[in-house]
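Why do we care about 3D structure at all? Because function follows from shape, and shape follows, mostly, from sequence. That is the central idea of this module. The next example makes it concrete: a single protein chain, its amino acid sequence, and then its structure expressed as tokens.
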Amino acid sequence: MTPPETISETFPETTEETLVLPEPAATQNETMADHDHAGHDHAHPAPALNPELVRSITVEAPAAEVSKAFRQVIQRYTKLARIPGFRAGKVPGALIKSRFAKEVRQEVLESLVSEKFRQALGEQKVQPVSQPQVSEMQLFEGQPLKFRATFETLPEFSIDGYDTIKVERPDASLTNDEFESELANVLDHHATVEPVEEDRAIADGDWAEIGFKGQLQDLAQTVGEEGLESKEITGEDVLIEIGGKNTLQAFNEALRGAKVSQELQFEASYPAEFGDARLAGRTVSYDVTVKAIKKKTFPERDEEFAKQLGPYSDWNDFEAKLRERLAGRKKDKLESHARDQMVDALIAKYDFPVPETFVQQQIDARLERGLRALAQQGMSSDAMRQLDFGRLRGAQRDQAVNEVKASLILDKIAEREHIEIADEEMERELLMLSIQSREPLDTLRKRLSEDGSLERIREQMRREKTGSVLFERLAG
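And the structure:
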């Protein structure tokens, strides 16, 4: 069970293996080495579970099976044990029992308890989604085995009415302004920049090369998917077009009339729809140094330049294909956002408890991505240890809960709609992963199969496909 990556990252799948009691048979409520003298447990802290989804089962095994399990382990120890004064394979069983009492009991617990637990699950038709917490353990040679296992299960809920969600297909038509903006970016990327030699002030049409430090006002420090959001932003050798349509008015007013080496201080307020989410709707106090005044020369829009940009026959061919790519990119982005809104509507429509195990796994995954981003940004391990992880985990919780709910809802819809991932679709996905990771396809497939990721990828693809199928139907 994993939540959709279209909403967030995957958390580890719950397979039959995860249902086995924790190794080395030291359950959350019992450590065998500590309790061998008594055979009973006393409480240790256990992971939190959602009380609405908790199930407990009592597991038993007759004394004969317990004795047989002890005999088998002792026989194996007899063959393998090397004890001075005894030939290999001739160590008395009584000596094995006294010398290796804890180890023998531990192995019996690992094999017999796990086996009986899985057997009880099958008989009672219960599927845990969390590691079982064991209590009331009674395990003695020659006596019946008995213990209680407590765990979370999946919630039972109805998805009736999922196909009545209101979904609007966005208008993905590419505007001339959007096309011209991207075209300007292409030309700007290939423009040549020359410094203005004369000693004069900055005027409209100039490009000011600046260095800056900015302090964001009223911003709480958080770790997001891209790492740590800082209150300070900096830049060196940044070019600003004075009077340009994409230049913030505060920069135009502050830089217009300034000269090289001049230092400026001013505030800039960014509109709520600003492209950089860090700055959108916020005010920044800037310290700016003017480093140079420059002029840009842009390339001619002709056949020669078009062929420099790629396999285009002429400039018109380049513009036509650029427009086509931009239109496709806009359509994908807007429809992806609309699908996310559809999933949000599904989450709001159905109220049901979610397994705390899944929520914590999802929080772990989100924080792991954030910390990985911090490491890539150069944050040291010592600095990371200073972060308030309790607060950071709390900040991720609401989103993690919604991501888990989304995964459960989409899985139920996929089941009702009979949506599956064909082997051909899976193979295409693996091929793309192989190309991206530069790992041979067969090696990648073997690795993902061994660590359980293959099935998680298939689950994720199924959810993505379910969301797309439902969107096409509801927005059609």
